[in-house]
Amino acid sequence: MKEEKVKIIITLTVAVFMVLFCLVPFIYMVVTSLSKNPDFLSLQSSFGWTFGNYKNIFTARTLHFFEYLRNSIIVSGVSAVVAVFIASLAAYSITRLSLPAKSFILLFTLSMSMFPQISLVGYLFSLMTKLGWINTYPALIFPYIAWILPLSLWILVSYFMQLPKELDKAAIVDGCSTWQILYRVILPVAKPGLFSAALLAFIFAFNEFMFALMFTTDYTARTIPVGIALFQGLHGEIPWGNIMAAATITTIPIVILVLIFQKNIIQGLTRGAVKG
Amino acid sequence: MINNKLKKTYTINELKGAFLFLLPLILFLLLFILIPIVGTFITSGFRDVSFLEKKFIFFDNYKTLFSDSVFWHDFGFTVVFVIVSVSLEMLLGISFALLLNQYLPFRGLLRAVVLIPWAIPVAISARIWELIYNYHYGLANYLIMQLGISKEPINWLGTNIGAFFALVLSDAWKTTPFVTIILLTGLQAIPKEIHNQAKVDRAHFFQRFYKITLPLLKPVIVVALLFRTIDGLRIFDLIYVLTHGGPGGSTSSISLYGYKYFLSGDFGYGSAISVSLFIVAFALSLLYIKIGRFGKEIL
Amino acid sequence: MILTLLDLTKKFSSLRGINTAVENINLEVKDREFFVLLGPSGCGKSTLLNLIAGLEKPTYGEILFNDRIVASHDKKIFLTPRERNVAMVFQNYALYPHLNVYENIAFPLRIQKTKESRIKKSVDDVAGILEISDLLNAKPFELSGGQKQRVAIARAIVRRPDIFLLDEPLSNLDAQLRNTTRTELKLLQRNIGITTVYVTHDQTEAMTLGDRIAVLKNGRVEQIGTTLELYNRPSNVFVAAFVGSPPMNLIKTTISEENNNLFVGLGNIKIRVPEDKIKTLKIEKAGELIVGIRPEHILVGRLNKENSVKIKIDSIESLGKEMLFHFTFLSQKLTGLTNHLNLNENELIDVTFSLDKLHFFQKSSS
Q1: Which of B213, C106, C255, C264 is the most exposed place for a label (fewest CB within 10 A)?
Q2: How would you classify residue C300: left for phi > 0, otherwise alpha for psi between -120 and 50, otherwise beta?
């Protein structure tokens, strides 16, 4: 049939375009990181395999790549775990306990996730300065927790709502206190939801830029996005090979996580953004 | 009356318990989001500049702001940028979502591929794009020359128009995945029977798209559109890394303008700029919540 | 354990106003009795069960376990399910999906901080009783519906509750399994001898299981009694129609008076309303009366001149050893049950009403 043919051609075209659109910059990054010359596309240059860029970012102390990455993992990891824990307490309260104004609390939290960061950063900077936290982990962890709480809350609320209420009733009849219902029944049962929430919270925190830019001054607390953004060569020349190697090492684990857990991420994203 | 009395005596402990579970959330949101917002509003009424005495000046910062041509330029740039980039993202997002909604080989893998740009931190992807847009040896100019689209390389980051479209394209790359996923969920909620019925009625598949898919998808499109608009208005990291507002301040966003004042120690004026953005974003987010009909299941 | 409910009332307030789920319930469940709460969905039977369990707080009234008040509105007493020592089985079983069968059954004991050795013995014992010993390592998702149900019962009885509550535990099982499980459940309840309250909407289940049954409608008790009492002496139209399958035929009739006696007519058949019914139903001289007759009391054949009528069969339903026949009489649809298996549609036959098996109801009681 003619319609079928047209459809197949369009589908194929869009599919090829989509894959190229999404992957080309990513592949370009990986290729550049493995090239002796970042300008290999120009006529005067050539490719030349090398792992020198990778070796360099781990050995060149002045780049502090390892420290940035470590800071990012610690800050994002701690923030994600704490935020998901706090959000699970709140989600339990909202979905299971008698609480007035549940929907107001949820919507209010949701609206906070849309505040522009710039409208918090001035006050938080003064606060962190007063507390003496500038360039320390807490300066990032505390705002990050608050920043990723709305998303975590929404994911968990929609997950908890799917768990049958009889589970709670059974637990109550079996003698559980409110706290025991949460940690002996709801949390273990909701493990997949907690995992999705934690994964998304981690990625959000890992991506964060403005707070990290404002509240850190050097490698003791600076995270990898800011680190890579501010990578400068010693002599004014941008060290593209090193930057791309650092970017590759940073993004490959995230990309692998995304490939493995795409279902959890998609669920989490849609729960956090479209439906309750 | 009896009923009310009963409720009070019986449920006060329950309320306490429920509130206790909510307390950590409230504390964090209060201390690190709500109070900072209020603080920013208050600071915007002060002359709060480093090395100068703090002084309450009512709305002077806002008076300055209203006659600040740089602010209005950045405001205008942000709005135009959001309109153009969000339109492009919606267009790409709908195409990708329609594609992924079909029975395809490797559909799961394709869906994961779409997510990759979303997962890469903006600041890092901005550096990748910075290299792509390199005048001498970047991928963009290489492709343009090879495909014969233009004989001359384009000065992406060195011209106003080039920098604008460089930002739009990079932003679309980063955020189209999100739009795609949201729209895909919307598409999957459309019952298959409706399409089959339309096929039986001999509707052409373009007709089916315009007459069935698009109207049914409209609520989800509106939600995605609003969400992206709010998100786009606060754009900072991409611009900070890729153009730093340049060339000559032509691609500076409101967030970047505010940031520059905070950086230079002028917290009063920086706060006023931030408040202006906050008000716009907050108004839109109220609209978003209303249209998205969130929490319907909980009410 | 004797369970007593006094004036028990539960109201839910919502945005749409106050909704009364159960109202002024007074009943007593005897020690070791298998007591069934029967009613259509929304009659408040599950709410009543939740009130007994301690999952809901009464708006008014008292609940007593023996002489101990476990919930009282006036005295401001409310014991939690744990303090009441009740156990409950839910319609969807509510097994903990993350725990295996052993841990599911052991769960209430672990919450009570029972010693590990005692937990093992108790779990092994109940698993033996319910014949699920070989399933102890399985996770709930690996079990069939019947197995899940056994695990749920095992979890409920493992800590020897004072009262055993079951909320439609059989309705998620297929028909055949339901029958066998029903028999086993009855036997189990006899053996463990725990006072049991069982909620169902299925009258067959109620009639086969219950020592006594309370029929509920709109949050009120319509009648309490044994299966036979409900079947033979339903106190109102609702119970008459709800208990028994196929349901009782209910025929609207008009009362006429003759020589100081009250009569109702079934076509040409004139029936004298018994004296005791006139008193209990407070029948006025004129008006309508509903006459009930069970399908098995409509006999095929002209057994008696006065009580017989000729009817045309509208349709038939064969049940194998018996047959249902539907016919129209006095422009009302009636059903008869017979073991004459050679009836045909549109056939003209004589039927005889067993007049001594008639039921009389006030119209207003529906």
Answers
A1: C255
A2: beta
pLDDT at B6 over 70: no
pTM (two decimals): 0.87
Report the alpha-carbon distance of residue C53 to residue C31 in Å, rounded. 17
Looking at residue B298, what is its pLDDT?
45
Query: Which of C80, C90, C98 minimises the CB distance to A170?
Result: C90
For each of the domains in chain A, give its residue range(s) and CATH number, in order of start.
63-273 (1.10.3720.10)
* Torsion of the alpha carbons at C92, C96, C97 and C98, rounded to the nearest 10: 180
Angle at C46 between CA C44 and CA C49, to 5 degrees: 110
Query: Are B233 and A157 in contact (CB < 8 Å)?
Result: no
Q: Select the residue of A166, A172, A191 nearest C81 (Cβ to Cβ).
A: A172
Closest Cα in chain B, distance from residue C54 (Å): 13
Backbone angle region of C270, left / alpha / beta, with phi > 0 → left and psi within -120 to 50 → alpha: beta
Tokens of B48: 């709060």
Interface test with B, best of A119, A177, A179 (most B CBs within 10 A): A119
Could you say which of A18, A45, A124 has the minimum Cβ distance to residue B99?
A18
Angle, CA of B108, B113 and B117, to the nearest 5°? 145
Residue extents of the structural domains in chain B: 68-298
Low-confidence ranges of chain A (pLDDT < 70): 1, 233-236, 271-276
DSSP C297: G
Query: Which of the four pLDDT bands, split at 50, 70 and 90, describes residue B2?
Result: very low
Q: Is C108 on the interface with A (CB under 8 A)?
A: yes
Structure tokens at C236: 């109102």
**CB contacts, 8 Å: B115 with chain A:** 258, 262, 265-266
Tell me how close the Cα of B7 comes to any Cα of chain C, in angstroms.
9
Question: Which ipTM was obtained for this model?
Answer: 0.90
User: Exposed (0-12), middle (13-18) or buried (19+): which is C165, by Cβ within 10 Å?
Assistant: buried
Q: CA-CA distance, C44 to C220, in Å (whole number)?
A: 8
Q: Which CATH architecture has domain B68-298?
A: Orthogonal Bundle (1.10)
Nearest to B3 among C59, C76, C78 (CB): C59
Contact B83, B232 (CB under 8 A): no
